[in-house]
């Protein structure tokens, strides 16, 4: 695992991470091979959610990147089982305070779901990514850490 850093916890939201989200590596290669433009990644805040089995993206990101669904899946939410579209994306944690060596996932299947956050977010960082990390959450000091 790489080095460790800390970020403050936003009390109203819980632990959030700024992620650079973009098209999957495979889709970028396919677009470039036919001479099409590739939209650059966006820096967006994601809530860390150990209860989410997969990473979830908001519908506005699907629209922004003009993503086409790769599959449909049933997923359990607090409100019951729902059908979700799944999309190929990439993500990176660029904040060196959090992970000194950086973290990039070039091909990740993320579920689309409208979430009602206190503050706007891009989605939930789920266990599909967190399973590759060790996380510590220190509520009294208001910080959390990820080890990659």
List keywords for this structure.
Aspartic_peptidase_AS, 3-stranded antiparallel β-sheet, 13% helix, peptidase activity, Aspartyl protease family protein, mainly beta, 148 residues
Tell me what the structure shows:
The protein has helices spanning 25-33, 59-64, 127-130; strands at 4-8, 16-23, 42-48, 56-57, 71-77, 80-93, 103-112, 123-125, 134-138, 143-147. The protein has 3 helices and 10 strands; from the N terminus they run ββαββαββββαββ. Helices cover 13% and strands 45% of the residues. Strands 2-3-8-4-7-6 form a 6-stranded mixed beta barrel. A 3-stranded antiparallel β-sheet has the order 1-10-9, with no helix packed on it. It is globular and about 55 Å long. It has 148 residues and is mainly β. A hairpin with a 2-residue loop joins strand 5 and strand 6 (80-93).
Alpha-carbon distance between the two ends: 5 Å
What's the gyration radius in Å?
A: 15 Å
Counted by DSSP, the helix tally is 3
User: Poorly predicted ranges (pLDDT <50, ≥5 residues)?
Assistant: none
The count of strands amounts to 10
The percent range for helix content is 10-25%
Question: What structural class do helix, strand and pairing data support?
Answer: mainly beta
Mean of pLDDT: 83
Shape: globular
| SSE order | EEHEEHEEEEHEE
């Amino acid at each position: 695992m790489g080095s460790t850093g800390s970020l403050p916890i936003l009390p109203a939201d819980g632990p959030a991470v700024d992620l650079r989200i973009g098209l999957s590596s495979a889709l970028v290669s396919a677009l470039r091979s036919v001479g099409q433009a590739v939209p650059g990644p966006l820096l967006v805040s994601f809530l860390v959610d150990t209860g989410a089995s997969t990473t979830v993206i908001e519908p506005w990101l699907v629209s922004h990147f003009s993503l086409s669904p790769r599959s449909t899946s049933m997923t359990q939410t607090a409100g019951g089982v729902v059908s979700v579209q799944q999309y190929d994306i990439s993500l990176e944690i660029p904040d060196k305070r959090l992970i000194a060596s950086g973290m990039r996932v070039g091909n990740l299947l993320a579920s689309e779901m409208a979430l009602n956050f206190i503050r706007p977010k891009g989605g939930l960082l789920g266990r599909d990514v967190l399973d590759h990390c060790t996380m510590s959450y220190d509520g009294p000091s208001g910080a959390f850490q990820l080890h990659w």
